[in-house]
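Action item from last week, closing it out:
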Amino acid sequence: MGWRTLVITAAKVVVAGPNGGVFIYSGAPAFGNLVSTDVAVGGTDPFGNTYLPGKTEYSVSVIAPHKVTAINIFQSTISWQTAPNPGGSFGAISSINAVSQSVVGLPPLSMTIGQGNTGEAVTFADPVVAPILAAAPGTGVPETWHLITMDAGWSTVAGYAAPQYRLLPTGDIEFAGTANHASFAVTTALNSSNPLAAAYQPATRHPYRNGDGGGNAGSEYETTGIINALPSAGGSTRLNIEGVVSLI
C-alpha cells in the first residue's frame, strides 16, 4: 500500500497523474469505510467502494445492506445521491445546477428534487430573462429594426446608425439614426419616396425632436409615414431622428 504515517504535515499536497485522487477512509481502507473522495473521474477503489467524480462526502448506513448517501460537487452541479450499498451504482435524488447565462435557452440556476433515477422529479428554475418584443405587423414574428429608404440628397453619417425604426410592445414607434443633407432652409422630407407602411403611421402629426438652432434640424412625423426635417432659421445640414413617437 505504499508509505504510511498517522499524521502528514505539509504546506502543499500535489496529486497528479491519470488515476490521481484523494481518498479518505474511516478506519482502515476497506469496503464500506470510504468517507470522502476528490477525483477527476469516478470508479471503484481497490476495496470495492464505488466513488463519484468531483468532490464527494459519503455516509454509510450501519444497517444492512448498508445504503450509501453522498453529497457530490462536480462541475456546475451539487447533487445528493444514493447507492444501495458501498459497491452499488449511485443515482441522484436532488441537485442544484448553476448554468452559464451565455447558454441560450437554459436558466442560470435550477434545482431538481426527485427520488432515485426512476422516480418523479420536480425542477424549480430561475426564468430565462428575454427582452419583450413587439410582433411585426401582419406577421406574428418578433419585430426588428427596419432601415428607412431615404430620398435623394440624404446620406448616412460615419459613426452614427443609419435612419431606422421599429414598433415597440407599447404600440409606439421608435426611431434611431442620423442623416446628412446639403444645407436646406425649408422643410425637407427624409423619405417622401418611401413612406413607412400604414401599420407604422400615426393618427396625428408629431413634432417630436427640436433642432438646436444651428446645423441640426428638428424632426416631425407625418400621418402619411413621412419624416420631415424642420431646419433652423439659418439652414440645417443634419437630421437626428432618435426618439419614441406615439401612434395616436
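Closing note: The CA atoms of residues 205 and 222 lie 5 Å apart.
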